Amino acid sequence: MKVLVTGGAGFIGSCFVRMALGADDPLSATAVTVLDSLTYAGNRENLAPVEGDGRLTFAHGDIRDAALVDALTPGHDAVVHFAAESHVDRSIAGAAAFVSTNVGGTQTLLDAALRHGTGTFLHVSTDEVYGSLAEGSWTEDHPLLPNSPYSASKASSDLIALAYHRTHGLDVRVTRCSNNYGPYQFPEKVVPLFTTRLLTGGDVPLYGDGSNVRDWLHVEDHCRALFAVLRDGRPGEVYNVGGGTELTNRQLTERLLDACGARWDRVRFVADRKGHDLRYSVDSAKARGELGWRPLHTFETGLAHTVAWYRENRAWWEPLRERVAAVAH
Ligand SMILES: NC(=O)c1ccc[n+]([C@@H]2O[C@H](COP(=O)([O-])OP(=O)(O)OC[C@H]3O[C@@H](n4cnc5c(N)ncnc54)[C@H](O)[C@@H]3O)[C@@H](O)[C@H]2O)c1
Hints:
Layout: E1 2-6, H1 11-20, E2 31-36, E3 56-60, H2 66-72, E4 78-81, H3 88-93, H4 96-115, E5 120-126, H5 149-168, E6 172-177, E7 179-181, H6 190-199, E8 204-207, E9 213-218, H7 219-232, E10 238-241, E11 245-248, H8 249-260, E12 267-270, H9 285-291, H10 299-312, H11 314-326
Keywords: Lyase, NAD
Protein name: dTDP-glucose 4,6-dehydratase
GO molecular function, one term: dTDP-glucose 4,6-dehydratase activity
């Protein structure tokens, strides 16, 4: 299979590429083209473990560049679309890039896939499109009720992608995944932010009273779900992907403090995020039943390995901490 991976230098996209070119060979990949504009969140270093692989081509460019996308798309059997502005806090500070990349960029890619008869377009989305819920879990047919500019832009792109299936018959598949954690995550997101601060003697900012609930999934388990959707998913279908580990931010902080050998005096409570969604929870029964997918990492071992990775890979994240400060909103 020849795959075009947008956002393949980011956190999840690079994991997908490393696994696709790894020993398990989940896609029988003969070529992987990464299209990435290397925003502050993109990093060629994330692809270092597979950089010498002859099947990998890196294209430095923007998914909104219609001419470039049109030139790159032919010859690929599938597009796996990760590229996005992905940080909720940034979308609150300024939404323009989120709408432009997440909505306009997705439409540019869909047009090219349609024009060139690409076999499958896998749109990687998020559970945040459903909004917030107090109890129970969302199934795939739940209405989309996004609250932040980030999740609204992702919901828009989901709907545009599905419209290309219904209108044009393009084989579009959508996944909606819960919060990912793991190695190579840019240190503005809560797990690497807290871990790197705790490892360097700093304090950590906890929003509000820390009662917001998120469901956590190891990034490799997310990518395994994506391989399963590419192999066995059906055109026009949406698949929820969740870890089944729901934690309040307070509980998550406690686990990270323990893993880093730190105490609660390192935690600073800060004003809550505007419009902070209380709880996300997806029902992954469809992916489990139809695709035979299930997470392989338990949260306990996954988090322990993740913290160990940040402990051992300071050379990867120390330069990025300066980048976080430079692009702080
Ligand atoms: N991180 C999570 O917990 C999570 C959960 C569910 C879904 N998702 C979705 O998965 C995808 C990847 O998320 P991530 O956490 O890896 O994000 P990330 O911010 O780490 O990576 C995004 C990548 O996209 C690239 N990019 C951004 N704008 C671009 C543009 N205009 N043209 C080309 N490349 C561009 C960046 O350079 C970066 O490499 C996103 O679509 C996100 O909505 C993320």
